[in-house]
Task: structure prediction
Amino acid sequence: TTHAVEHHGVVLVYKQLSADPNNHSFHIYMATNSASDIKDIGKQVRSCKKSYMKIDKPPTCKLDEGTYRLLSEPEGEIRPQDLKFTLAVTKMKGYFEAFFEQPPPFKLSLIEIDSEETVWTATIRDGDCVDHTEKKPRKRTISGRQRSSSPSEEETTCKRPRWQDESDGVKAALAQGEDMTEKQFLKVAKQLGSEWKQVAIYLGLKSRELDDIQAAEKDLNMQKLKMLVEWKSRRGPGEATASHLLESLEDLEDLPNEVYQILKDMRDNPSVK
Result:
């Protein structure tokens, strides 16, 4: 007799952030248990028009190629009803959308259709849905509305960042824009919160240099601005564009969605100042 090969997979849960306390909307992704697959999903979620927070639940499970169904207790609205999972590399990851009218807890179960086996379960409780950065997105929503005419605000579907789908030639063309100005850096700096020091580390600055910046400048926004200007000073002409900054930070999971959108606008629309 032969046995099917077992594959270790992951199920990742993201909750939509909303000012409406009665909004209980989730995206549930299936993926292989590989760093690249998980990172791709993180980028896909960050490029959505709406903002999402990751809910930490034990993700690993056995996932074979096949069709799966997501069930919930109490019953919620889940679409699509069934979702195929493949081990092949795909540009876009499919996901379940789950909507609930009542508050948590919700129990989610992933069922393999053919075998009717439950391969993953998780209970989402009220404490899991608390957005600890709630105040920051609200503050940024105002500027987001002011930029409502930009292409990024008009997107209605989630998609991967454009650099994921471009050829090397197009990447090079995008990168050859103008270096960012201090005014543009200030726009980015104002959207950075406590994660700005992580940004600095990803840009190659050392902790001692951050201490020096903080000692020399008391205003927090100016500290963040000087950090970005320092990054620019270490690069050659034409190597400190919005595209370069975006690519330098693409692996930073804590990069605020607002910063990503601003840099994406600057990269895709050179007229954005």
